[in-house]
Design a protein that fits this description.
The chain has 389 residues and is α/β, with parallel strands linked by helices. It is built from 15 helices and 15 strands. The chain folds into 3 domains: 154 residues, 3-Layer(aba) Sandwich (Rossmann fold); 121 residues, NadA-like (Rossmann fold); 80 residues, Rossmann fold (3-Layer(aba) Sandwich). A 5-stranded parallel β-sheet has the order 7-6-8-10-9, with helices on both faces. The protein has a 4-stranded parallel β-sheet with strand order 3-2-4-5, with helices on both faces. Strands 12-11-13-14 form a 4-stranded parallel β-sheet, with helices on both faces. Helix 2 links the parallel strand 2 and strand 3. Helix 6 crosses helix 15. The longest helix has 15 residues. The structure holds iron/sulfur cluster (SF4). Iron/sulfur cluster (SF4) binds next to loops.
Length: 389
């Protein structure tokens, strides 16, 4: 550790609504002690460069594909949640990892990095609405209820990477695995080799799309678990007959694409290929030409010949960057309405500058830490994913 970093203090975490004020009754957020630079400050780019240069290899900046351009410009690596988790784990020498993504990703980075490393989320308001749709208490309650009808022993939990550390910990404690949108099929095959049923958390669409489209199950093999209703809104008989128990969660970005938008773009753009993320609804995925994870979407577009036309159903920042990077192809956003991920967009250049300058000043802002017991079980579920055949 350099002199620069000697004697670092932890910036106390606090809450606010939007921007810089504190409101203890609001949703999870962050107050930025000290001065948060205004978004219109023309010196921000220079300040980010200067602070990053001062930190040198003490800091490693990870940028999710859905982040703003102004943030991606300072990322040492870009990727989807899985790739970024791998990248965080592959940087044992960096004491500070600034995670430009959302809360669950920073938690995964903390679980996968060493004790001397600190993961910083520039704005604690950058959560994920999908991850928040499955609370630990609700999932524990679900498991108890499955036990009350004799189904816990034959059910294996499979949790999407887009879940809180607490849900990953639950998954590890009950012998399950984490999955991503790239390896969900393998995760389900593994789970069905261990048990008769899968409890899939928290994205019902990824679970259904994978089970029905890739494993050959029928829609009738799937039931949805609504955590607000007894037995998730199902009868004991329906649960006993089901193969997939899908948590009632969805992505507030990908869940917005509709079958109508697919029909509409086909009518508007001759020869268009519709490419969507598997977090989209079943009927959207069925109507599309191709389905793929964020990384797969990028690869498919990059490898396609000039002159091809694409309508892409994923987060708008990424679609816009793809369109700019490939002027020889026609790339349009699948939905007419704007569809940024509002929580991803909470990380902006002022927050990144603030985080970098706090580190330069010897303070660790917004450090994300996962409680050790949860981390232990979550790590087991993550390791199981990495060991999938
Ligand atoms: S795009 Fe969807 S899954 Fe990803 S962070 Fe935003 S709400 Fe969560």
């Amino acid at each position: 550790m350099t002199e620069l970093m000697a004697g670092v203090e932890h910036t106390p975490l606090a809450l606010l609504m939007l921007g810089r004020q504190s409101d203890g009754n609001s949703e999870r957020g962050v107050d930025c002690p000290g001065e948060l630079p205004p978004a219109s400050d023309p010196s921000l780019v220079e300040r980010a460069r200067t602070a990053k240069a001062a930190l040198g290899d003490q800091v490693f900046v990870l940028g999710h594909h859905y982040q703003r351009d102004e943030v991606i410009e300072f990322a040492d690596v870009t990727g989807d949640s899985f790739r970024l988790a791998q990248q965080a784990a592959a940087r044992p020498d960096a004491p500070y990892l600034i995670f430009c993504g959302v809360h669950f990703m920073a938690e995964s980075a903390d679980i996968l990095t060493g004790p001397g490393q600190h993961v910083v989320l520039p704005d604690l308001a950058a959560g994920c609405s999908m991850a928040d749709m499955a609370s630990f208490e609700q999932v524990e309650d679900c498991w108890e209820q499955l036990g009350s009808v004799g189904l816990d022993a034959v059910t294996v939990p499979v949790s999407y990477m887009n879940s809180s550390a607490a849900i990953k910990g639950f998954t590890g404690r009950h012998g399950g695995t984490i999955c991503t949108s790239s390896n969900a099929k393998r995760a389900l095959e593994w789970a069905f080799s261990k048990g008769e049923k899968v409890l899939f958390l928290p994205d019902q669409h990824l679970g259904r799309n994978t089970a029905v489209r890739e494993l050959g199950l029928s829609l009738d093999d799937c039931v949805v678990w609504n955590p607000r209703l007894p037995l998730g809104g199902n009868t004991a008989e329906a649960l006993a007959a089901a193969t997939m128990i899908l948590w009632k969660g969805h992505c507030s970005v990908h869940g917005r694409f509709t079958k109508e938008s697919v029909d509409d773009v086909r009518a508007r753009v001759p020869g268009v290929q519709v490419l969507v993320h598997p977090e989209c609804q079943y009927e959207v995925v069925e109507a599309a030409d191709l389905v793929g994870s964020t990384e797969r979407i990028i690869t498919l577009v990059e490898e396609s010949p000039a002159g091809t036309a694409w309508a892409i159903g994923t987060e708008l920042n990424l679609v816009r960057r793809l369109a700019e990077a490939h002027p020889d192809k026609s790339i349009v956003f699948l939905e007419k309405t704007v569809c940024f991920c509002s929580t991803m967009n909470r990380i902006d250049l002022p927050h990144l500058v603030w985080a970098l300058e706090e580190l330069v000043a010897g303070r660790i802002p917004n450090q994300i830490t996962v409680e050790p017991e949860t981390a232990l079980h979550a790590r087991r579920a993550l390791d199981q994913m990495l060991a999938l055949p």
